Amino acid sequence: MSEKRVTILLNYYAVVNHGQALIFGQLTTKRLSDLTFTSFSGRTTFRTLFSLYRSRALASQTAIIHYEAFNLTVTTDDTGFFMVNHEVDSHEQPLKKITVNDEPVRIIDGLYDCRMHHINTPNIVVSDIDDTILHSHVSRKFRKLRTLMFTPVERRLAVVPVKTLIDRIVAQGATALYLSNSEQNLYPLIYRFLVLNGFPRGPVFLKQMRRLRDLVRYHKLPPPEVHKMKMLNILLPMFTDKQFVLIGDNTQYDLSIYMNIAKSFPDNVRAIYIRKAIPIKDEAATIANLANEFARRNIAFHYGDDFETVVWPESQDLKMPAADFKPGDPLKSAADGPGPSKMSNDVDSVTRNAKPDDGTTVNKP
């Protein structure tokens, strides 16, 4: 007789800035299984991931999050995800339990941090995951799938130069956040990878949960840049007193996404670092122009596969507000003259232009 499905909290985090908490999580129903991804064989890794893609999102349901001092009512979206803003004090408010229809949700020990994370550092480093800190082979679909589904976490390789860079930045006064186009189904594997490889503590923002039939039928999702733009347009307004370092790679859309964010938040983006994960033809001129333009905007920029030459902090000058860099202005060099930005067009050779999600919202209780 098959084991009964139970409702579990698959992902959770609460991050706080000056009394304003951003609380998010993923609720799903599945048969209980070991989600630690610890000492798994290739076969067990496949079976566990397969079960995660067979789990069912707890869609459009009201849940109550119980803390010591208060309860918070949230409603999941059609993928079982919830995100809400709430005012909190400076006292520690660990997650106690979650209930749905008065029934307890299973909270899995060791899968997430149940404390509220008060960010007191002056800087925040936001890093992509696949091919930025974790070798994932995104540009080679078959190898990516084989690596994901059959390689135990202990054998997955971290991108050492980027890991070293993040550690150095965090050690000098930054908090790490992780932003990826991987779906929520992969959270237990990603969390285990981050812990195993000693990455700094921080929330993991993933894309909406997918079902197995979505993969089989190639169900189309929103463009991959939408999720990252959506989350960055939530995070930067919440942390207006912080300086951001944005780290990504050249396999998808990171550079164009970060360019757009730098235009929208000129006083908060301090540095953009892009790992060159794959070779791209005729990119040198565009990258050189971008480096000059970012320098003119007081934004540190590095593009390559080695970050030893990156010095952090780059310069005290980087703390100066870029007063002439207004939201909505095209990112281009003075030589481009009036009209559409040549720089924005040229960057297509490195990565596609990203479009923000106009429907970006956070639920408020």
Could you characterize the architecture of this molecule?
- With 365 residues, the protein is α/β, with parallel strands linked by helices.
- It has two domains: 1-118, no CATH class; 121-358, 3-Layer(aba) Sandwich (Rossmann fold).
- The protein has nine helices and 16 strands.
- It has helices at residues 42-54, 141-150, 160-171, 187-196, 212-216, 224-238, 254-264, 284-296, 342-346; strands at residues 5-17, 20-31, 56-57, 62-66, 71-75, 81-87, 97-100, 103-104, 106-107, 116-118, 123-127, 174-183, 204-207, 243-249, 269-275, 300-304.
- The strands form three sheets. Strands 1, 2, 3, 6, 9 and 10 form a six-stranded mixed beta sheet that branches. A six-stranded parallel beta sheet has the order 13-12-11-14-15-16, with helices on both faces.
- The two termini are 41 Å apart.
- Mean pLDDT is 85; it is low at 315-345 and 352-361.
